[in-house]
Design brief:
Length: 568
């Protein structure tokens, strides 16, 4: 769902104050709920999903539909404090932490009325880990945890015997119809969060094979996906089912009458439009053809100054943090004092207020506000130009050496504007003359993967789930040139994070991840900048339980079981 890793263009807006909103609309009562035929929510999902097979979905616009049509074993609580039952009513973990046993709801059914079974989860997870299908989320979430999946990346996608042998050796089983069991390679307390990913939903083997015209080889990727191309064969176990697919235009979902908690649904239709142009979506919102949109850049000032629209605007924090990446394999960026001087000379508040104009929040930490592990106690990277100058003097690096550094920048208006501000901060506060190296985005991606840069940014990360493991693993030494573009040398970091990943005591995990975060901050592994927010409009009669883990540009409960329309 979240692009891993990503560096989204920064929104440039007009200055004013924002209010972070918790929800829209009022509380549902029998007196103020709109009639059933009015319980229709029209949202803009922007892009048509590449697939309606949950295991093949990767991006937020796909997950927005997939998480409503399919249900994984567990669901993240609204406040992200823990998980709660989804398709499973509960789960047990063996004393050695290596076996998770999920107890499926006895009343869980597919949209065609058939019971959801443990075998359906076995099949769904086997497909997810089938090397031939190359699911976007198989690595590292599943191949790094499920027993037998260690060699996922080394299996030939065209060798049927090798694929079949690999799948047969996975630690997945269904002891009975209402039980699904997963054996792990190693203890992983974060595995409960892996089980909340919508890609880990069950899939019916009989549905897949019937759509394909019968059984087919495990390496036949065409027949494997035929079932996911028609609303009539997309049989899900979630609170909604697909009733209409109009390619390049919209998809409509309606309540699944066989969902185990079908009575909880108020909405009778959710229509996901695929409108890529923000101005078109904005016009449709104004004419009441859409109930919710992400505000386009050109219209933000209008919305803020409009007495009606301004009351329908919501600024929503995301579990996303951005930073400047230093290539520590190049001199003088291998010098801690140089990295810290560059970091401490950036006025983050000025960046988010004057350049991003209040749409983001400055941050000096790795874990974002709103998820476990967030702390703003370590001020080592705080803005202090005097201290930055002292550090630069202590580094022994000359101004001429520093002026040879280039700030690698994607050729977009947002990135150029932000990076010019940052370069100006260095030049003003440190007396330097660092220039931007502006090139096309494709080349930037190639160069950072090869380590061919000095400084790059804004770089960042968005949570796949709200556990520190999803973040801390980015800076493991083995991720150098993979996710960890700057490749900082962090003695003991790998051991610390690997221990925290496998620990079962949450208090100890929290302590270890906190130590890991402190090392990243104190060693200026990167220069942290800001936490991203998004700016949306939705009608006052729409009730959404939005939060920091919502789908990008489609705010509200990640599943619309708690949404409803008020009388209007």
């Amino acid at each position: 769902m979240r692009i891993r890793p990503f560096a989204l263009p920064v929104t440039l807006l007009a200055t004013t104050a924002f209010v972070v909103s918790a929800c829209g609309g009022g509380n549902a009562t029998s007196q103020n709920l709109a009639a059933a035929d009015k319980q229709i929510l029209r949202v803009n999902d922007q892009t048509e999903p590449n697939s309606y097979d949950p295991g093949q979905e990767t991006y937020s616009y796909e997950g927005a539909v997939g998480r409503n049509v399919f249900e994984p074993l567990l669901i993240a609580k609204t406040d992200l404090s823990d998980v709660e039952p989804g398709a499973a009513s509960g789960y047990d973990v063996s004393s050695d932490g290596l076996t998770y046993t999920f107890h499926l709801r006895t009343n869980a059914k597919w949209s065609d009325g058939k019971p959801v079974t443990g075998a359906d989860f076995v099949y769904g997870w086997q497909r997810l880990l089938n090397p031939a299908l190359a699911a976007g989320y198989a690595d590292p979430f599943f191949d790094g945890t499920v027993a037998g999946a260690q060699n996922y990346g080394g299996i030939s996608q065209t060798d049927q015997a090798a694929v079949d042998s690999f799948i047969a050796g996975l630690g997945l089983s269904a002891p009975d119809a209402h039980t699904f069991q997963v054996k792990l390679q190693h203890p992983a307390a974060y595995f409960k969060w892996v089980a909340t990913l919508w890609v880990s939903s069950p899939i019916r083997k009989d549905v897949v094979e019937q759509a394909a015209g019968g059984a087919f080889p495990s390496t036949d990727t065409t027949k494997a996906e035929m079932w996911a191309q028609s609303k009539d064969t997309i049989i899900g176990n979630g609170p909604f089912k697909i009733s209409e697919i109009v390619s390049k235009d919209h998809v409509t979902v309606v309540p699944n009458p066989n969902y185990w908690n079908a009575s909880a649904n108020h909405l009778q239709q959710v229509i996901f439009d695929f409108i890529s142009d923000g101005n078109t979506a904005y016009s449709k919102y104004q004419t009441d053809a859409l109930d919710q949109i992400n505000v386009p850049i050109a219209d933000v000032t209008v919305v803020r100054n409009d007495p009606v629209l301004s009351k329908q605007a919501h600024l929503i924090p995301e579990l996303s943090v951005f930073w400047m990446t230093y290539n520590t394999k190049r001199t003088p960026l291998d010098n801690l004092n140089v990295r810290m001087a560059l970091t401490k000379s950036i006025d983050r508040d000025k960046l988010v207020n004057d350049i991003e104009h209040g749409t983001d929040k400055s941050i000096e930490s790795f874990f974002p506000q709103g998820m476990n592990g967030y702390s703003d106690a370590d001020k080592a990277q705080s803005f202090d130009p005097a201290a930055a100058k002292t550090l630069l003097q202590q580094s022994g690096v000359t101004v001429d050496q520093l002026n040879k550094l280039k700030l690698l920048t994607r050729n977009t208006t947002g990135n150029k504007t932000v990076n010019q501000f940052i370069a100006n901060q260095w030049n003003t506060n440190l007396g330097l003359n660092i220039q931007l190296d502006v090139i096309d985005s494709k080349t930037v991606t190639r160069d950072i993967r090869r380590g061919q840069f000095d400084i790059y940014g804004p770089d960042g990360w968005g949570a796949d789930y709200p556990d520190q493991q999803d973040w801390a693993d980015i800076f493991l030494s083995g991720s150098c040139h993979g996710l960890n573009w700057g490749c900082p040398t962090l003695p003991g970091y790998d051991d610390l994070v690997n221990r925290a990943d496998s620990e079962t005591n949450q208090s100890q995990r929290n302590a270890d991840y906190a130590t890991a975060q402190k090392q990243l901050i104190d060693q200026a592994a990167v220069g942290f900048l800001y936490q991203q927010y998004e700016y949306d409009l939705w009608k006052p009669f729409v009730h959404l339980n939005n939060g920091p883990f919502d789908d990008e540009y489609v705010p509200g409960d990640t599943r619309y079981v708690q949404a409803y329309i008020l009388q209007h």
